[in-house]
Amino acid sequence: xxxxxxxRSHEIPPDPRVSLLDLxxxxxxxxxxxxxxxxxxxxxxxxxxxxxxIVSCLALAVQYDGRSVTTVEGLADxxxxxxxxxxxxEHDGFQCGYCTPGQIVSAxxxxxxxxxxxxxxxxxxxxxxxxxxxxxxxxxxxxxNLCRCGAYNGIVEAVxxxxxxxxxxxxxxxxx
Length: 176
Description:
The protein is α+β, with helices and mostly antiparallel strands. The protein folds into two domains: 2-75, Roll (Ubiquitin-like (UB roll)), CATH 3.10.20; 83-175, DNA polymerase, domain 1 (Orthogonal Bundle). Helix content is 38%, strand content 11%. It contains seven helices and five strands. α3 crosses α6. The chain is globular and about 45 Å long. The relative contact order is 0.15.
């Protein structure tokens, strides 16, 4: 059994009890994904599986045979950091930094969900094919990722700068 992680194929350990988080951190040395609560409540271990976000502490590695996993390390490309990673730096979207990888990966997954038209609890028109990522939408969609330092303002600002259409329009108008 194999799993693709950040574009590279890896053998899944034969022990069916190995969590995806432990495979990433302990066996593959991908320590960007953090072990926070180890109960699926904090979001520090968020990764993307086939583009959808999951908490890797509750996932068994064997469940993801044949699938593609992206960690925070896999978001950057040869050209440098992912735009959201740069925005986190620019907007101080971190203090201690422990939750930052999970926040970034979760936001990338969240943007994909919104682009596919998946509504949240605060989406005004749940039948809309396009969902604008307002600050309220971002806060709701990111509510599963906890920051114990309270860097939420910087996190929301970084996410909005990277993904929110209205935010881009406002900045373009202000620059004109």
